[in-house]
Amino acid sequence: MESGSRFGAKCGDAATAIADGARHAGLQKTTVVNSTSEAADLLREIAAPGDLILIKGSRASRTEEVIEHFGLRYSSFVTSP
Fold this sequence. Notes:
alpha+beta
């Protein structure tokens, strides 16, 4: 089984610096988004059934909104403990 990230999207105040660091560490497919709804739209474009998606962030950055926006349209994809 292969492991490792294939794509990264960053949102928030430090997004550009984090994306630059990710590229420097070898994750070339990374992008900066401007909002949680833009992140959800990006997920809709690239996610496929069976993909494992990690959404990490703080309550201050409201990353739960990514799941809410994405899950509204693709609720069959979204599972959470």
